[in-house]
TrEMBL record:
Protein name, UniProt field: MalT-like winged helix domain-containing protein
InterPro entries hit by this protein: P-loop_NTPase, WHD_MalT
SUPFAM superfamilies: P-loop containing nucleoside triphosphate hydrolases
Pfam families hit by this protein: WHD_MalT
Lineage: Archaea, Methanobacteriati, Methanobacteriota, Stenosarchaea group, Halobacteria
Record domain MalT-like winged helix: where: 288-362
Length: 473
């Protein structure tokens, strides 16, 4: 059962996206928003294909649940460098002294022949330059740096399109949300006229300046419903179309799942067997998904329902499965289009559709959800401690990359810990998390917690940092 929503009958919305191209465009940034399952990604996919067919360069990045603005921009620049080779590296060389570049990248074994920044260390170099907590004098403002890179490359093209999809704004705490909203607003004000950003998100950016326009997706009408029924190979009898529309109310994801299920048993049979009202229909369709899974696959999705992104090393730690087994299960789910995946830093990152994830989450008991969040917090902390320990080893060849990974894991730890402390004392939660780790992992975890919550790294946290430090010190 495909996790994507269909692209169908979005001519009006497509025209609005295309109006952002060219010198006469009304805005340099668009938010493509709508409820989960309304086909935002499908629309952006179709738009990207249209741009590429017209030889317009497209840089696409699935932001997901971002760690920080700095980490997001670092990864975006890595995608930019892949599309426009040397553009980011040349900008670093023009901004930063050779001695600083050498000191940053000396921990890595691969440099380009000229002694500059090699592609293998681009991400770690950016992480060091963007991180004001590090002890280097030539840190640079990431937003200004990104804009400078974009301006320089834009001189070589008539038009450039950037697509930032899967912006999980609902998964961010208020402090982090404000930081990202502010960053998008600042970028939108200074983009060149021939560069346009499109952000796929469940919500619009609040207090948008005039140069950020909204493209909202609504339900499919009865004509679009008929078109989708035809695409699945079913006859378009009036009574059937009306019945399908009345059941789904034009919700693209629900409609697609209903028709996909009907591929096996027939459309009329599904209409006879399925509930009439939409909430019950959604439950019926979600149950049908679970019925397609093996016992192990279903349990993996239940164990991981507290996560928006599924990473094999975290799931392995959470569920006591080997990483090889987790990868095997996720690969099988992806092959049958039950989860999506993207590559990030050489690793496959998977995700359920939000509607499927929320259905599983809503049907888990409070006790199971709390247990899963505790396991997730422990997994992120163990690996965060490991990466922090690596940064303290001078012989480590991946010091800066490990620091970035440490930061991301600690932010995820903080997110899960905040959810648990809604109902439990913070001291009890940390004691529980640390009780099931070995002595080496515990020492590394405590060091990671101490550094994270005693520096400005935790400024986005909603938790009582003094209380956290009081537990471990």
């Amino acid at each position: 059962m495909d996790v994507s929503s269909p692209f169908v009958n979005r001519t009006t919305e497509m025209n609005r996206l295309q109006s952002g191209l060219g010198p006469e465009s009304n805005a340099q940034m668009y938010t493509v928003s709508g409820p989960s399952g309304f086909g935002k990604s499908a629309l952006l996919d179709e738009f990207a294909s249209t741009c590429e067919s017209e030889n317009i360069p497209v840089i696409r990045y699935e932001i997901g649940n971002p760690d920080t603005v700095q980490v997001f921009l670092q990864r975006l620049l890595e995608e930019w460098e892949a599309e426009f080779p040397n553009s980011v590296r040349e900008k670093i060389k023009s901004e930063v002294s050779p001695s600083t570049i050498k000191s940053i990248s000396s921990a890595s074994s691969i440099l380009d022949p000229s002694g500059g920044v090699g592609s293998a260390v681009l991400g770690t170099t950016l992480a060091k330059l963007f991180n004001t907590d590090d002890d280097i004098t030539e840190t640079i403002d990431p937003i200004h740096f990104v804009l400078d890179v974009i301006r320089k490359e834009s001189e070589n093209h008539d038009q450039i399109v950037l697509i930032i999809d899967q912006y999980d704004v609902g998964g961010l705490n208020e402090n982090r949300k404000k930081k990202f909203n502010s960053a998008f607003q600042e970028i939108s004000r200074d983009l060149p006229d021939n560069v346009t950003w499109y952000i796929g998100s469940s919500r619009h950016i609040p207090n948008e300046p005039e140069n950020i326009l909204r493209v909202g997706l609504s339900e499919l009408d009865d004509h679009a419903t008929e078109e989708l029924v035809q695409k699945h190979g079913f006859s378009v009898e009036d009574d059937v179309i009306g019945e399908v529309y009345n059941r789904t109310r034009g919700h693209p994801f629900i409609l697609n799942k209903l028709l996909t299920l009907a591929d096996n048993t027939g459309l009329k049979n599904i209409l006879n067997d399925s509930p009439l009202n939409r909430p019950e229909l959604i439950n019926y369709l979600e149950d049908s998904l679970l019925n397609e899974l093996t016992v192990e696959e279903e349990q993996l999705l239940r164990d991981s329902c507290v996560l928006r992104e599924l990473r094999p090393h975290i799931l392995s730690e959470m569920t006591d499965r080997s990483q090889a087994k987790v990868r095997q299960l996720l690969a099988g789910l992806h092959q049958r289009a039950i989860v999506k995946r993207r590559e990030e830093a050489g690793e496959w990152v998977y995700r359920c559709h939000d509607l499927q994830r929320d259905y599983i989450l809503d049907n888990e008991s409070s006790r199971e959800k709390r247990k899963n969040r505790m396991n997730a917090a422990r997994a992120f902390l163990i690996h965060g401690g490991e990466f922090w320990n690596n940064t303290q080893m001078s012989e480590s060849g991946r010091e800066t990359q490990d620091y970035t990974l440490y930061l991301g894991h600690m932010m995820n730890f903080d997110f899960q810990l905040e959810k648990i402390t809604d109902t439990h004392d913070i001291g009890f939660c940390i004691d529980q998390i640390l009780s099931n780790v070995n002595s080496i992992e515990k020492e590394q975890a405590i060091n990671a917690i101490e550094h994270y919550y005693s520096t400005n790294l935790s400024y986005e946290s909603n938790l009582d940092t003094d209380a956290i430090l009081g537990v471990i010190l």
